[in-house]
């Protein structure tokens, strides 16, 4: 036996063992990963793709031949197959084949198999067998299978597959120690004789021979010229299975036949795509395909069918219906027979589903659950968020209290502490939303929610799973966009991210309230509520419209099949939920938080610099104080006494504050933008407000307060309303109801939230999409606000 | 209207020999005859087990009419109507 045929993982104690954890979605893979690695986990991204890379370390106990050691475990994305084009499956396949430079090739593969869904799970196993890496099977959910009246025998399955099969119950941590101990016994499974049609096998021989011929011919010519690729004349970087152990007689396909099969069924990973495209090879394949077509054989289908035939045989050999066991007088039987229900009775999941996805009750319960989530993140998170911000503000005052006035103090107080506040303010909503999401996902309800809502969202090209992210975006787009992680289909996920900011978030509410309250006072409460509702509706319409357009333009192309598994209901595990909440909150703080922090310091600097010259500041203060005391004197004469004298310092501060912002970069940008904003009805002050709103939309209100010298209004906006209504320029009021409407439309549609941009960058893996979002949303906002203002002017004047 | 299977609750019309999976009524089941559609969708459906004459049962439709939940090979999954129609089944009368 040659050294290349060592079928067990490297035994040398110095080497680190790399294991890959593979399995179908919903097979309980994550639970097993958590059980194996505990808290020793790292979450990152595979470079170049938005697929999450989870790795962890696991301590393996000493076994007969091996000392105790550490292994690093790569948790591959959950996949049904290793051939498909989806980024998740591509990454899984590339890691398993050792084609990714960023990830070491695994020494062995642990594949998680859901015993209650044996056949479909074995399909992935059958592909892993072909891959030829040492393998071990973790047979999960035996308890669920038993409840469904099936007993899967690990011993028999092990015999069929030729690799160790360890029964585990992931969520109870049962069998995890046995799994760790068995890793040393992982071995390459013997390749089964998949029952391919005879004609297909003949064709593999033909194509394989052809490839071999090409290979030797090319080898002679290229070896002379370059000397490179001497051993891999076809340019195949990674050996297909048959290459690993050429002297193993049980592996009946020789390497060229193995390559021929992969090429014919379209399994062209990065190691083969160049080969497939090369001319003699591509024509060889084309003629072979047409010969097969005349026989009515389609290689891909023939391959999958052959795999499933083998699976059907294996599963019938290893599965024992518990009814039969009982009939054989063995009521105790193997497995978890205590929970056994006759398969004739509907099992629990079916009975629960009869209510939860019922035509009427299903929708009612769905509505109640969504209402609970929404109320919680919209209102219950508010006091926590306010408390956090106040706490950080107080801390900032405490720290900077003993510092003298000056830029250092202002940077600390209004830049750094406010920046930290701008980041942590999102934490309560993110934590709460991910608490609900992981409870819903782990229990199995999330898939049902998608099932219920899919029809509605499919109309505009979205996915049933887009519903919760979009709903959450009414509270805040940040947690909403993070929640799109539950959408597997990339295009639907991207479309959902791109439209999520159209949902009117809670940061827009203060702006809506201020503008509606100031300029539609006479309209009455009913009309005011109507305007508010119209603004929300406008956002939804814009979202639906743009989603529809994106799915037909930017994100066009074949949509991957909508396949939604409805997993068995389970009670969520508290530790899993806590881990999800922690991981997601932490990933926000670490990845998006830093960007938000930096941007908020830049924004602070834009309103802070350049400083107003001291002489000018003193002058402004003096003028304001003089005018205020003159006003006070006049009023005193008119009304008699009783009114307190105005606070001179406060008036001076407010006036200087207004002059400072006018003088700052933000103020200059406002002035600079004015020509562009005039057609929308805005003046430079609103321009400054829009710049400030980038920190968070509600900052618009406080910026306006500073500009109109009424100070930060907080909840009390009466003074600001008065000042805004009184603002006159060239004899005409600056603000009219039409200007307010135009500005409201702008606020509904525009992308002016740096935190959203930061999170989109984090979730899409680059600045491209956030910049696109900034441009398209603001262009749309500009055009619509322009239309509203210009048409409105014709209408009303 | 011609009934395509013997199941009492089934009232779908179409060929008796075979029909699209989306045409099957709730509670009916059929055997997979063929799978169409573009290669990616076809591959996915085959890989999910819609092959070798597997028996597929229609469990329910979503309250809004789409998607449809099916059971095959001992597990349930749901497909949109537009995908289910790519799967041709020969109805059988298991019910």
Core attributes:
heterodimer; A: 797 residues; alpha/beta; Rossmann fold; seven-stranded mixed beta sheet; two-stranded antiparallel sheet; 33 helices; 7% strand; elongated; disordered N terminus; B: 95 residues; alpha+beta; SH3 type barrels; six-stranded antiparallel beta sheet; 2 helices; 14% helix
Notes on the structure:
- The complex is a heterodimer of chains A (797) and B (95).
- By secondary structure, chain A is an alpha/beta fold.
- Among the domains of chain A are: 3-185, 3-Layer(aba) Sandwich (Rossmann fold), CATH 3.40.50; 198-295, no CATH class; 592-796, no CATH class.
- Chain A is built from 33 helices and 12 strands.
- The longest helix of chain A is centred in the middle third of the chain and has 40 residues, at 361-400.
- Chain A is elongated, with a radius of gyration of 33 Å.
- The termini of chain A are far apart.
- With 95 residues, chain B is of the alpha+beta class.
- Chain B has a single domain (19-92), classed as Roll (SH3 type barrels).
- Chain B is built from 2 helices and 6 strands.
- A 6-stranded antiparallel β-sheet of chain B has the order 1-6-2-3-4-5.
- In chain B, strand 4 and strand 5 (75-79) form a beta hairpin.
- The A-B interface holds A 80-81, 83-85, 116-120, 123, 148, 150, 266, 300-301, 304-305, 308-309, 312, 350, 353, 357-360, 362-363, 451-456, 458, 464, 558, 560-566 and B 35, 37-49, 51-52, 54, 59-60, 62-67, 69, 73-80, 83.
- Strand 10 of chain A pairs antiparallel with strand 5 (75-79) of chain B.
Order of H and E elements of chain B? EEHEEEHE
Distance between the termini of chain A: 94 Å
Q: Which class do the helix and strand fractions of chain A yield?
A: alpha/beta
Mean pLDDT of chain B: 81
- Could you name the ranges of chain A where pLDDT drops below 50 across 5 or more consecutive residues? 1-14, 222-232, 235-252, 331-345
Gyration radius of chain B, rounded: 12 Å
Query: Which fold name fills CATH's third level, the topology of chain B?
Result: SH3 type barrels
Principal-axis shape of chain A: elongated
User: Which chains make the largest contact?
Assistant: A-B, 45 and 35 residues
- In what order do the strands lie side by side in the largest sheet of chain A? 2-3-4-1-5-6-8
Strand percent estimate of chain A: 5-15%
Assembly state: heterodimer
